[in-house]
Amino acid sequence: MEKTRPVLKFELNKDLCKGCGLCIEACPVKNLEFSLELNRKGVKYAKIKDIEKCKGCGFCFLVCPDTCIEISYEK
Ligand code: SF4
Ligand code: SF4
Fold first, then answer.
1. Do the domain assignments include residue 1?
2. Which residue in 75, 66, 64, 74 sits closest to 26, CA to CA?
């Protein structure tokens, strides 16, 4: 039987984000960027560019000081 690949789920809580940019710097494939809009804190929050390009490495999750990012796999 063919194995199905788990689906990567990436979530970023934009209203927790303080716009420090650490995750943007940490992403090895430059897949994060600042939004053009402001969040509830009045800062340009980080967002993912293309979920298909995400490697699931978790570097962004590890460096975020405010635990805004969650990465999980759905089977
Ligand atoms: S999990 Fe890795 S590849 Fe995906 S956005 Fe975060 S740092 Fe970039
Ligand atoms: S590291 Fe966390 S707080 Fe900083 S920009 Fe990224 S998501 Fe926002």
1. no
2. 64
Ligand 1 first shell, C-beta below 6 A = 26-27, 29, 31-32, 48, 54-60, 71
31 vs 40: CA distance, rounded Å? 23
What CATH number corresponds to the domain at position 50? Answer: 3.30.70.20
Q: What distance in angstroms lies between residue 48's CA and the mean position of ligand 1's atoms?
A: 8
What single letter denotes the amino acid at residue 75? K
Q: Atom 6 in ligand 1: which residue has the minimum CA distance? A: 60
pTM equals 0.92
pLDDT in tens, 28-70: 999 999 999 999 999 999 999 999 999 999 999 999 999 999 9
